[in-house]
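Q:
Got a chain?
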Amino acid sequence: MAKKENIASVLAFEKKLVPSDGLMYGTTWDNRDDLSILKPLKLKEKSVRGTISNRLKKAIENDPQKLDAEVRKANLQTVDSCALLAEHDTLKLQFTLKVLHGVEKPSACDNEAFNASYTQAVKTYIEQTSFQELAKRYALNIANARFLWRNRVGTEEIETHVKLKSKGENKTWVFNSKSIKLNGFDPSNDNIDLLASYIASALSGEREFVLFEITSYANIGNTQDVYPSEELVLDKNPNNKEKKSKILYEKDGIAAMHSQKIGNALRTIDTWYPEYSERQQAIAIEPYGSVTNLGKAFRRPKEKKDFFNLFDKFARGEQLDSSEDEHFVMAVLVRGGVFGESSK
């Protein structure tokens, strides 16, 4: 248990990987660099009549007449959709990514002793690792275009361009994203290593920041659906026929992906959680290893592998069991958040 004089009840960290929203365009694979044929993707509204497909009460399931009556009910829906034009076969997704320094300095901390011990712990981590492991994993998630999410499935080819936007530097890397696997972070090449070195230089404080423009082309086929981010529908009253049941995200009239969703893809680097050896799938960096679509936390406090158990030791200068635990703690701090501790 931490001494009361070394407890920060107010403690917050700003995120150090800052992606923009991703804008979506249509083009052709053979002429993907030709801006004259590039078209912003627009959302379309559809009104459809669906069928009843949810689970029914046993009384209805076991009564043919009641079942037929239920099936005859109109399941009317108004939804947003988005697709390539007939002359286009390729999705272009473009966003910027800023990587910041200063992870050793909380944006808010109300305890001087805690701040001093935390700062020293992070400086030691930087001296020993220079953020190389985390930077390599972020670079691989850029190179493999994990941020395309569902748009990555069923593609013929994917090519990702990363342009360094820092003043006085003109560097561009091109990756065959389809050839870079999503599982595991061992494969690398000179371009990935160089990209990682720029990310690491910002995170470790050698640079104030670096800014990248990231453009990914995915050959998905003419007129095929594309998948922008979906907005949260707060009013789910089935009797309200004026509301759409699926609302997609757009920015300035262009179909888009949330910056939060892109950020989630970039930080899907946690292969250090207890069940990884069985699942062989990376999960996003979260304090409790939360995966919402599975309804499961892979880092449970009972096992002492959640962020808070590890962070409380790390920030006060205690040695963690492994370098993997240190990488996880630092990745959560790069993610940012509010982590104050009660003194009670």
Q: What stands out?
A: The longest strand covers residues 90-100. Residues 4-43+82-338 form one domain.
